[in-house]
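Shipment paperwork, digital attachment
Item: protein structure file
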Amino acid sequence: KPKDGTDYKLDYLAKLAIAGGIFDLNSPAIRKDFLDAVRKNTIEDFFEKHVFKAAKKDLATHYDSKELRSFLNTYVYSGEKEVLVYLFDNNCESIFDLYFIQAMRRVNPNLIIYLVPTEGQVSNDFSVRDLKGTLNDETGRFVFKDLIKDLEYLTTDDIKINSSKKVKVITKGPMLQGIDLAHLSMQLKTVL
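Attachment content:
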């Protein structure tokens, strides 16, 4: 980590997760570029243009950068036991989220993170099934091995805060896009 306290890898991974969230294959222009890239076998160039290039840019404002630094200092670099609830959005973004989450846990092994995918398939949002599929496939088992070894799926409403596992998956997440406080499971209410 540089002397000024900035971990450029974590900054970049956070911005990559943000870029992944802005990126949306449902956008007609992006979808056209994607289909062209698939047809031309230039998918790497497509992701460089739409995701990786965006992650290399500065955040929208100075305040955004300041907030990111504050977040990283409080939850990651402090080394303290902190608790985060991390809500997933779309499938593409969530792969970058997993990289970011794993990197934060490597820096601060005391960090407890509740992962909140959707309970079932809702449009292109990241579901429990998607998470399991990502982490159980051959590539996922290799890429996310540090995350997997400290992960547990919570299957009841009884949230065990003192469990030895530090990455906990809420399996009864929202069944709609976004969060509607009137429709939260008891499991998610307990965590929030």
